[in-house]
Write a structure and sequence with these properties.
Immunoglobulin-like; 40% strand; mainly beta; 508 residues
Length: 508
């Protein structure tokens, strides 16, 4: 080999290594943890096979999946990068990524029998395989619209004897959510909407589409691109990009609005027309700004830096924050409206996560009083602090709060999560427990708080996701426990799986 050939060969080698995928993540209902859709969770990592591809073997069941019918949904990520999401293409085994990923969906399939299935992913070839063979579901036989567009429907999660169902508004099996198929291949539905309707009674509506009564065969919207659908966006399975959101819009007049959808073309339209949000500006929310959780307050506004990023200078103190020890809670909002969902933290410091229900607020601590400049990069889903702060990214302690008799002395009727009386016990850092004496016949309200941070990072059962599992997004209502008889009850919470329970230990 001559010198020129040797140099060329080495250059090719280094370029190949530089562009190689180092890690891969498999997310979806094939995972049995509360972070099943989160690429930042180490529980979702795949095993490298030494050939530039990755694999994972999982136990799947004919009674598994979101609907307990053996139907599963999944997608892939490379290097824990939201911009390197891989969704299903037009053919079985084919994946799309990059700018094309919005027009791709989750891989949806049915298993023929209980057993171990190996799922392989090759990011360089944009391909995948599942072995033994499964039935991939390709045809859309029905389409549903779910969400706050159903003003008269319920908001309480329920159990149907087989599985936990989402609150009625978000339940893809409710007959009133079904869309009608038209002769041109489109689907449509007429909705009665109001200028005083929606989740916050201000005419702003949020919804998602599901296919075949499967919330994870979902379609959301793209902020700034009215009428454009993004595939693979169910209530729990949204990709996490800042711009990929639910379909969010405002109506200014009461009336009947017809939604028409062309799922194969990834587009939709309303008639009469509605107003869409454009993702024009961003805000900082939390206890680092006045009026902490009002995203429309002028004091929350960030300023553009001319390079696609947004910044704000915050005056912070080592004795500030909700706990008075320099610990602060923060997230970002879009266009001053919570209907677009907050931009929070998914598990990797410096990376944003825009995906209910397992996103949580950004927590950090400062050691010195001073001005701290926070910068948000919406395009790359990143945030930074200057000077740096101390990140709080793991659950190190858990508190249970509620209207229990023995918490009456905490100064806030049982809801003072900063009081040590609420601390739970753990031996492995995963399962937390607390023994409480209860009175039979009473109904108790409770929820969990993390790291004695006030309510900046809390866990409760979210009513819209369709799982009996702890979630960390927003401020869901408390969990209810109807106490059957006097006694000592052991309350438990598993922060990995999301399981929680209350079990009678001793009669009184």
């Amino acid at each position: 080999m001559n010198a020129f050939a040797r140099i060329f060969s080495l250059l090719f080698f280094f370029l190949s290594v530089a562009g190689a995928t180092e890690t891969a993540q498999l997310v979806g209902t094939v995972r049995e943890n509360r972070s099943r859709w989160n690429p930042f969770s180490p529980d979702n990592s795949m095993e490298a096979n030494g050939k530039g591809s990755f694999k994972t073997t999982l136990r799947l069941s004919k009674t598994g999946g979101r609907n307990s019918d053996g139907i599963y949904a999944l997608r892939f990520f490379a290097d824990q990068d939201l911009r390197k999401v891989f969704k299903r293409g037009k053919k079985v085994g084919e994946l799309v990524t990059g700018e094309d990923s919005a027009s791709g969906g989750n891989i949806v399939f049915r298993v023929p029998s209980d057993g171990d299935y190996t799922i392989a992913f090759d990011p360089e070839k944009s391909s995948y395989s599942i072995s033994p063979k499964v039935e991939e579901i390709e045809k859309i036989s029905s389409l549903q619209i779910n969400g706050f567009v159903h003003d008269e429907e319920g908001s309480t999660e329920c159990f149907d004897g087989i599985r936990t169902r989402p609150a009625e508004k978000w339940d893809e099996w409710v007959p009133s959510h079904e869309m009608s198929k038209n002769s041109d291949g489109s689907w449509s539905i007429s909705l009665k909407l109001s200028a005083t309707g929606g989740h916050e009674k201000n005419g702003v509506y949020q919804c998602l589409l599901s296919a075949n009564n499967n919330g994870d065969w979902g379609y959301g919207g793209i902020l700034g691109k009215p009428g454009k659908l993004a595939g693979g966006n169910g209530y729990e399975s949204r990709v996490g990009h800042i711009e990929e959101s639910a379909i969010v819009f405002r109506v200014s007049h009461d009336g009947v609005y017809t939604l028409t959808v062309w799922p194969e073309e990834y587009r939709f339209e309303f008639s009469p027309r509605v107003e869409f949000f454009q993702m024009m500006h961003f805000q900082v929310d939390g206890d680092s700004v006045p009026d902490p959780w009002n995203p429309s307050a002028p004091s929350h506004d960030m300023e553009p830096d001319g390079n696609g990023r947004w910044t704000k200078t915050l005056r912070l103190s080592k004795n500030g924050g909700g706990a008075g020890n320099g610990t602060y809670v923060m997230n970002f909002s879009i266009d001053g409206n919570w209907a677009l969902d907050s931009i929070g933290f998914g598990g990797k410091w410096g990376k944003t996560w825009h995906s209910a229900p397992q996103e949580h607020n950004i927590l950090f601590q400062v050691q010195e009083d001073g001005d701290y400049r926070v910068t948000l990069d919406p395009e790359n889903g990143e945030f930074t602090f200057d000077p740096p702060v101390s990140p709080i990214t793991e659950i190190s302690s858990l508190q249970i709060c509620g209207d229990f008799d023995q918490f009456a002395g905490d100064g806030k009727g049982g809801w003072n999560s900063l009081d040590p009386m609420h601390d739970m016990q753990t031996q492995d850092g995963r399962l937390f427990t607390k023994l409480l004496r209860l009175t039979g016949g009473k109904t108790y309200n409770y929820r969990f708080a993390c790291n004695r941070s006030g309510w900046g990072w809390s866990l409760a059962d979210y009513p819209y996701d369709g799982y009996r599992s702890l979630a960390s997004h927003g401020s869901p209502p408390p969990i209810l426990f109807h106490c059957p008889r006097d006694g000592d009850y052991l309350f438990s919470a598993d922060i990995v799986s999301g399981d929680y329970s209350a079990r009678l230990i001793k009669h009184r």
